[in-house]
Amino acid sequence: MKFGQVADPSQIDFTLPKDHPQTKFILNQNKKSLENISIGCAKWNKTDLKGFYPKGTKDELTYYATQFNSIELNATFYGMPTAEQVQTWKEKTPKDFKFFPKITNTVSHFRRLLNVTDVVTQFASAVLNFDEKLGMVFLQLHDNFKPKDYDRLEKFVQDWPKEVPLAIELRNTEWFTDEEVFNTVCELFEMNNITNIIVDTAGRRDMLHMRLTTSDAFIRYVGANAESDYARLDDWLERIKVWKKEGLQNLYFFVHQNVEKASPLLSAYFIEKVNKEFGTNIHIPTMASEKPTLF
Question: For the whole model, what pTM was predicted?
Fold first, then answer.
């Protein structure tokens, strides 16, 4: 994932900004404890995760699911999944595994939220076949989808099938730099139980808005293939500890890298820290050189 990549990460201030005041208010509404922590990568193919799979691995998803408890499923962005494909993916993973499929680009990039009822219905019908393994669907809007098209976004949110949990990633900077616009869209999300995705990447610090609109936190963390990646994860753990005390119910944390083969290493570091802090027992992934078992 090269989104937000910069030539020299050492020149970036990676300090996490303060929480938006509404974040604490939203979390305080939740009376449940932290129920689920999902940490994973964005893909399971060998090309991107070079060095992760043992030699002779026959089925990448089956093996991936022995190392992680979730996947940010970008495959569904490039093509409409079928019910049969979803069922196949589901059957290759253990019972506690979660999928977080990205809505097909027909909706977000080609039709740009216009006249998408048929496609949304088809997509939602397919991913519901994940059953208990469906974590949350997410919509990633194009960089040039701007507040001038707010009416399209509002209709999309209001029409979205409520039985399918949804998160939305806004990318154009105008959503974040205009306070009135940002408040309007966040209120829309709050009223419709839509999770506002937070993106932490070097070249787009404006997307690090720290405003939750539900009691779920959906974080897309993009490392810079730099030593600072680990310190940044430490900072995230401290923030999540605060959110947990305030009422965080679910944490969805997906690790990306400009060079994706480093994603499992970063994930392992973060999972180990999470386990120690929260008393969880999430499996810590290892690289192929440490794994003798073939799948």
Answer: 0.95
